[in-house]
Amino acid sequence: MKKNADWWRQAAIYQIYPRSFKDSNGDGLGDIKGITSKVDYLQSLSLDAVWLSPFYPSALADGGYDVADYRNVDPRLGTLKDFDKMLKALHKADISVFVDIVPNHSSDQHLWFQEALKSEPGSAARNRYIFRDGRGKHGEIPPSDEISHFAPSAWTRTTNSDGTLGQWYMHLFAPEQPDFNWDNREVQLDFIKTLRFWADRGVDGFRIDVAHALKKDFKRLHIAKKSMSGFEIAQDGSDILFDRNEVHEIYREWRKVFDEYDPPRVAVAEAYVHAKRRMLYARPDELGQAFNFDLLGADFDARLFKKIISDNIRLAQSEGSSSTWVLDNHDRVRHATRYGLPKKTDLIQWLLSDGKSAKLDKELGLARANAATLMLLALPGCTYMYQGEELGLFEVEDIAHDDLQDPQWLRNVVPQMVKGKISGLALIHTDKGRDGCRVPLPWQARTASFGFGREKSHLPQPKWFAEHAVDTQDKVNDSNLSLYRRALALRKKYQSGEELEWISTGNPEVLHFKRPNGWHCVTSFNSKSFALPAGEILISSAPIKGGKIKANTTVWLKA
Ligand code: NOJ
């Protein structure tokens, strides 16, 4: 069924991390056919759309966010034919499809980068990326002090064909992810070609990776020394590396392409910048929507939630967009874990300690996670969910070091003295990375790799995954999965309009808002017992007794 042009404003969107969703051929990696085989499952969640993280050919230096060919499928994950079949099956189930566009950088295996390496300084091939001479007498010092997200420096030196050392190239992420030169028209046009390639196949939307980083101030690049944190950057569009005003010209051009299609193609920006600046990417003549990540770093706290919700609805409306809500994605510790740890737990240290530095209260974490999810699903706007949260999955915090894949783990190392050793130095990892939320999904409790594939999965699954397996949860009425299914189906029935009215509860620990169609949502964050207002209970994240809700619970009412 053809959707109207505004379908995305109130959508429930589910992120699939393809390599960890379902493996159809037993090679340990999830694949496109695996997704097709689970369309019924996705349909059972009443989703409006799925967003697929990169499935393109890649050396997997950064889980696929190092793309070697933007207009193809990684042969380990399938073929374009498989992709078309999957798209057709999802569309038949009325589920739209977003693909991930990674425009800031390619893989170092991309043909253009390989060509650039073989070409002379100053050549057209090098000008597609950001090559510069080094500082110092022999060019031995990187062109600037800029720090990359994964490696110590954002510059890597090349070696010439005669074995001598050559120019440096820039990479905001791993050395295997060279940044494009977005001042180059050839680069701009090639991405438009990529957008059309997928839109012509029927893809409905695009998630734009690091959307705020494409344009750099080349005149001042030599003095750049920022880290990746988007929150330290200038808020007037004048930063050397991020969120520059000119980046919006790119998205205005893309919007014209999106609007050639019927319905217009949809896009969402990943831009780690201040909320006000983020909304610029969401303007109707640009991408239309931007991820609001404010809840990813927020405690389960009534005041914080109310502020974030109110601010984001207001901001989105001011730019003619609709808000987005995100509690989980492939880059963050799962929300059931975050909420089950003592307040102020340093998540990086907790992961580095394999979960030993603080005690995880799983029951509390899951209760809060479901209360928060149910609350977000009742809000106006678009909710983005991440595969596995419907199963109540926690972060896998104790993956053995040898099994870790994430460059955030592999590259964040510092030399440290080893006590008692004469030779002295060892490399210590300072960040365990994001593999713990990327462990392949458990489909069946009792089969090898929990029904993900045939034998081993590319990241090891812990034993406790059995309790969360889809077939375990299918057998019981009050499972986490059934809560998600019921909530998403109800949401589909009730969601309309973008109005939200806060209703005073007289209790700062309880939030209550009303939506059109007599739809009410009440969340008790930390109030032991709160008498529910009158109305028919539609669903609750925990059992309700005697018309009262406990702490860490959300209830939807019809009144
Ligand atoms: C953001 C993606 O979400 C993350 O997974 C990736 O490492 C970086 N962008 C670089 O592409």
CATH architecture of the largest domain: Alpha-Beta Barrel
Shape, per Cα inertia axes? globular
CATH uppermost class of the largest domain: Alpha Beta
Number of helices: 15
- What helical percentage do the residues reach? 10-25%
Rg calc: 24 Å
How many strands appear in the DSSP assignment? 19
Q: How confident overall, as mean pLDDT?
A: 95
Low-confidence runs of at least 5 consecutive residues: none
According to CATH, the homologous superfamily of the largest domain is Glycosidases
The distinct bound ligands, ions and cofactors come out as: 1-deoxynojirimycin
Report the CATH topology name of the largest domain: TIM Barrel
The domain count comes to: 3
**Structural class from helices and strands?**
alpha/beta
Our estimate of the beta-strand percent is 5-15%
| Strand line-up in the sheet with most strands | 8-7-3-2-1-10-9
Largest sheet: 7 strands, parallel
End-to-end separation: 32 Å
Produce a short descriptive summary.
The protein is an alpha/beta fold.
Any overview of this molecule?
- This protein has three domains: 7-106 and 186-402 and 442-484, Glycosidases (TIM Barrel, Alpha-Beta Barrel); 111-170, Oligo-1,6-glucosidase, Domain 2 (Oligo-1,6-glucosidase, domain 2), CATH 3.90.400.10; 499-558, Golgi alpha-mannosidase II (Immunoglobulin-like, Sandwich).
- The strands form five sheets. The chain has a seven-stranded parallel beta sheet with strand order 8-7-3-2-1-10-9, covered by helices on one side. It has a five-stranded antiparallel beta sheet with strand order 13-14-15-19-17.
- It is 25% helix and 15% strand.
- The longest helix has 17 residues, at 185-201.
- It has helices at residues 32-36, 39-43, 80-92, 111-118, 185-201, 247-258, 275-281, 302-318, 335-338, 347-352, 362-377, 407-410, 465-468, 470-474, 480-494, and strands spanning 12-16, 49-52, 96-101, 131-132, 155-159, 165-170, 205-208, 266-269, 324-326, 382-386, 413-417, 425-429, 501-502, 510-515, 519-524, 530-531, 536-540, 548-549, 553-558.
- The protein is an alpha/beta fold and 559 residues long.
- The protein is globular, with a radius of gyration of 24 Å.
- The model has no long low-confidence stretch (mean pLDDT 95).
- The structure holds 1-deoxynojirimycin.
- InterPro entries: GH, GH13_cat_dom, O16G_dom_2.
